[in-house]
Each structure stands twice: as C-alpha cells, then as structure tokens.
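Reviewer 2 asked us to include a model.

Predict the structure of this chain.
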Amino acid sequence: MEHRESNLTAADFEEYTNVRQACLNDYRARPIEHVRGDLVWQQRHANDVISHLENVAAAENDVPLRLELALRQLSGWETQGRPCLEGALFFLDPIINPRVENIPDENLFTAETLARVTPPELSVKAHSIAAYAYYKKYLASPEELEAIVKDAQRFPRQDEQCNIQDPLENVICAARHANLAASMQFITPAVLMAGYAFRDLAERLRIYVSGFPHYRPLWRALEKRDQELLEEACMRMRAGGCVSPSETVCAAMRCNATAGGRRGLRPCTGDCPADLKPWYCSKTCREKDWHKHRNICQPRDAIEPPPSLSLGERTRDKVLWIMSPQDAAEQIEIAPDNDDRDDLENGKVMWEAELPSPYAPDRSVRYVMRRYD
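Predicted model (structure tokens):
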C-alpha cells in the first residue's frame, strides 16, 4: 500500500488527532487535549505504528493498516497538509464495499459468518471515516474539487460514484455510510455531521426523511442528539436565572405590548419547550428576539448546502428517486437498549440473536435483521 514515511509537523499531528476524534470516538467522549510534545518522538512513534500494522497485514489482516492510512490521507498527514479524500476512500474501498456471496440466511448470525466479512468493530470505523470523507467532499470548494479530480487519477477506485464532483452524490454517500455505522450503534461526530448534512438538505427540498425508513438508525441517532442539545440549552438558560415567558407580555426586549392589546400575542411556532416558549406581538419583535431565543429553539446551526447544488424540483426528484427503496429493504443491525419492537418505524425483526458486543466482549448485544417496507 502506498504511503510516505512520516515527516510530522505540529499542525499535522493536531489535525490527525482531530480527524481521529471525529471518526473513531463516540460523540459524547471528551475532546482530546493537544499536547505540544517532542515531535521527533511523535514522528518515530508514527512510523513504528505503520511498521507494526504492515506486519499484521502481511500476517493476517490488513484492515487496521487500511484504517490508519485512510485517517492519514484524510487529515493531510500523508499529503503535506492537504486532505486527500479520494486517497482515504481508496484505502477504505475493500472494507466499505465488500463482496460476500453464498451465505445462507440461517447462517447470517453466527460468529463464523461475521468473521468472513470485516469484523463489525472495524467495519463501523471504516464507514464512519467514509461518511466524514464524503461529507467533506459535499462541502468542498471549487478549488478543492479540482484537487479531488486529480487525486482520483492517482487513486482509482471502485464504481461507487458516477460523478465524484457531484455534491448530491457525495451527501447521499455520506448519509449511507453514516447509517451503516449508526445501525451498529457506532455514533461518532462524523456520523452525526453526515446525517445532519443530508437531513438539512432534505428539509430545504421539502422532503421528509421519514420517507426513507431503511435509514431509520441514522434518523434515530439524530433525534436523540436533537433532544440532548435541547435539554443542554434549556439547562443553561434555567441555570442562568431565565424567567419563564409570559403569555400576556411580548417577550421582545423593551416591548410593552400585552395580550390585551390591539393585535394580541402569538407563541413561537418552533419546537422549544412549553415552559420556555416566548410570545410575541409581531414578526418584528420575533426577529428582534431571535438571537436570544434561538439557543433553545434551534440549538444547532443548519449545515448550508454548497452554492453549486441547485435546490429546485429536479434535485428534489433525484433525491427521492435515489433514496426511496424500490422494494422492501433488509439490513443487519445492533438493536439499541431502548428498542421499541411495537414501533413500526423501527422495521420488522426477521432474525435475531444474542452475540458478544463488538465493542465490549464481556457483554452481549442483540443482533437483528430488520425489514423495512
């Protein structure tokens, strides 16, 4: 596998650490503190890591080496500080696009069958890294897209994409890999970023993502994070002595309008909690108060689509055509702890088995095959 001997700089190491944190750590994990240590030691250690993984690859398994090289390409470590997204995906291709055939349905949940493909604890990392790479391609500038085209000539890949410069294809690929990671309960910042990017685009196109039921693991992860962000914002406001809004007085500062006035008051139409929902006498007052209220009404900034992506009906129709399943979709997942079997949005369980967790072998998880009609 092609890679250069590490010639580490402080910026290289910091960016590599950031990318690794985004792709391989749970989103709730504390950020890694960057220590400006001995770069000579860090460079030697980085080269030792590659040497060790090359020995492992030659002996039994090249997946850990491919993951490490993908992270280095993605962070710019292997390319003089410039992220090489196609290089990262090139190393991931054999993992994220496996070809496994002739496995009878009754053998799907055996440890032997899972071993025939990349082990789940490694494949989810590959899908998370891929989601991040496609997310970055989705938001790439025209100059960055030119570099991506040149990188594609150096790193020829399998035919996962028709047009590597198409932002719509990139965000759909990002969501697909994010969903595959989320289906195994591997929720990283990269998975959330890719999921939010697609969902925000869908909202701009007036598309309800619930119409893509086979992506339910990803939507469920986003819904959980939405609730966490809302609760965190509300806790900060209540801790800061925020006074509950009144239904009889306009919430905008220095506005004395009351419910008894000529126009009356209307509540915010967002998803903010009822006890913190403000009331306004006019659109002007609502807009004036938005900078203060947005923290609980919209605790996350939307990811804007790139200017090159048209938001017209043609794009909307293309998303619906690509994302809508033509037939019932079936996929293997790890069921979450709070899984609701009676919720039809979660699909129909066709097979299930208790197996060791890929992340903590001393505990078991429930593997299921779900069918989404």
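Residues 100-115 have pLDDT under 50 and may be disordered. The chain is about 50% helix and 10% strand. We have added this to the supplementary material.
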